[in-house]
Amino acid sequence: MKIAKKIASLLILFAVSTSSHATFDNAIEHYEDGAYKQAFMEFQSLAEIGHKGAQFNLGVMYLEGTGVETDPVKAYAWIKLSDKQAQKEQAFLNEIRQQLNAEQKNEAEFYFNSLDKSFSEEALKLALEPVYQPVDPSLDTDNEAKPLKTIAPDYPYEAAMKGVEGWAKFAFKLDREGTPTDIQVMDSYPGDVFVKDSIAAISKWQFETPSDKSQLSKVYKYRLSFELDKNNRKNRSIISEVKEKAESGDPVAQYYYAKYAPMVERDPDFNPTMWLYKSAQQGIADAQYELAEKLLEGEGCEEDKEKAISWLIQSASGNLGRSQFKLAKLFFKVDDKEKAYFWLDKAIESNDSEIALELAEYLHELNDPKYPLDLIIKQLNEADLDKFSYPVKHHEFAAELYFLNGQYALAVESQEKAHKVMRKIKRVPDYMQERLAQYEEALESSKS
Question: Domain of 45?
Fold first, then answer.
């Protein structure tokens, strides 16, 4: 049958042309493996943010009745929407249309019009695309902490000899004296070339501490750059290759071009937010999350919380824990507790090690009987400590939770771990010594 051949050839075409697109690839793989319901849900998610291949394949699945009940009306409408600009599938659409009776033909056009109002390129631009603005270079969102004392990091010898430049971006907490602890690598380029030397330096820095001591649990960000020559040809060559792929429509390249091009891009009109949008449209969850952050901050675009939430929901629906957590916090702020608890529960279920510490702290501060100490401790233990350098705050928080839960031996053990890590940085402060004494006293009392 002609329709079956058409389906097979186009599925292969889309699979080949978007080999670097993880979400679309996953949907294709699920389809080919016979996991039709999963494939259908993934195609639908992408179709609703304007992915033409997903819109077409969604129509195919309605036509075949794979993963969903057969519905030639919806099949026609989705395929027509996917072909609205290209106008390459008219023969295929006519073939489907010939299978419809008069009533179904009217329904198909009505359904297409409803899809067109919500999911056409024009509609999605209004609903999801940021209103771009020039990037303000004075807004340094990478460096939120103010250093008071710094030590220049060593430039890795091999990198210097090869003319390699790059950077490392960290998230960390501050103790009461402004010493960074629980240092976590958020991102680095290229690879981990500059990570070790950056951590060695930044761990000896001292930062300005917040006047409000309740802010000591805040996570700060800082980025260290390693530059030899602004006109470094090697970096410009690498970024040029990424740019070429990004411009050809590769969603992964679009994401990395948004992240790394600002390092060497001379064009003052270059806007990373624009490239994040292009990548987000094609289902890259990290791009969707970072685009939402740009929309919330008004960075490279007008501030728009409604669009930010739409993108967060897209990435959260793909089980990205940090998006789910961000949504929960946003909905708590506007007192929409039903949605807040829904997304908070999803974030907990995601077992996302990257947000484990922050999420555990948030649950503890929430002080809701729905989330008992046992659950918060379990959440904290999801954290991957291999991704942290000097995890003082993590061990201290674990000790506090164990103490409150009456697990005094574990409280002492965790506090001692915090001391051991702190001694690698500096002398253990008095307040930490006092906490250990408190936990030891409780342990002794529990034995008598």
Answer: 2-128
